[in-house]
Amino acid sequence: MNLIFCGNLHNGGGVQVAISFIQELVTNKITDLSNTDIIISSKIEEELEKIKINLNEFKNAYTMNFYGLRKNKDFKVINNKYNICFIIFGPIYYSLNSEKYIVGFAQPWIAYKDNDVYLKMSLISKIKNKIFFTVKDLIFRKYKHLVVEHEHVKTALLEKNYKSKIEVVSNTYSSIFDDKNSWDKIDLPKGLDNSKFTFGYIGRSYLHKNLKILKKVNQILLSKYNIDVNFLFTLSNEEMKILEFDNIPNFYNTGCITLNQCPNFYNNIDALIFPTMLECFSATPIEAMKMNTPVFCSNYPFLTEICKNAALYFDATSSEDIAKLIAGSINNKNLLEDKIQNGLKVVNTLPSSYDRAMKYINLMNNI
Question: CATH topology for 177-349?
Fold first, then answer.
């Protein structure tokens, strides 16, 4: 008997990948699930209910939340033994009673230890962060089978002398983006002036996402270039306050949105702004390209190797450079259209969410 485990995923891109994988398994009946258990988090359960995905195909489906070092005590009640456990994204710090493990790796702090995010951190925070990810690094090294989302991540791990067998299964966009009937409306904030160029950011406000720089970018656009654009976010109210975005007149917020609302978010912006300093393979730029939305993003290899010539790149450490790129690009319709067309070509080279699910299952069958 096998186990698919995503009880440790509660937000962000990991949740989206898990939902997409489960949706493909259930709706397309990729494989016989009668000998497979699945453990999902309550967040994933909530999202699956919204898209009407039930888990009756699995032998057993459990909703259990695993946080940090602690194993959910309800897991002990199951008392099942597994041949193979696929952890969609690890690491985990406990046994799940399996002979073999396949573990998804999406930890850029480990793959790219020398990164620009550390420039934004205090000495104490740097030390704590490095200790935390050193422990994670040691745990990942114990796994015999890892799955990464891009070749550059595999290369980074091999350069760090990982001995694991590392497979590449590319990230991609969810099949929801191909099904307009599944798209949910999004409530736009009051006062949003649609006549202005609108930049959108979709995701959370983790430190490495580098969102705080947009406050300075906005000031430069207004004072130096006399350009007034909208910035639209999908953050919690608390995140907006912490970033001091809540009192900026042209900064707007939809609040957190669901996967089904993502397509219409892209439909309501003129371009994606993505100033991240650290990623393995975020699906956000790919989703934007799929939705014919130009991408303005950081000039790092983990983005340039994915977006290629389909994005407009800036120095993520320089608010001046970001503002200069915006000022010189937003009125150049030919440039933006060229990036949109290049983006569609990039998207067409990627596997579908069905292909990704098939590759995951093939790994489980051939370990």
Answer: Rossmann fold (3.40.50)
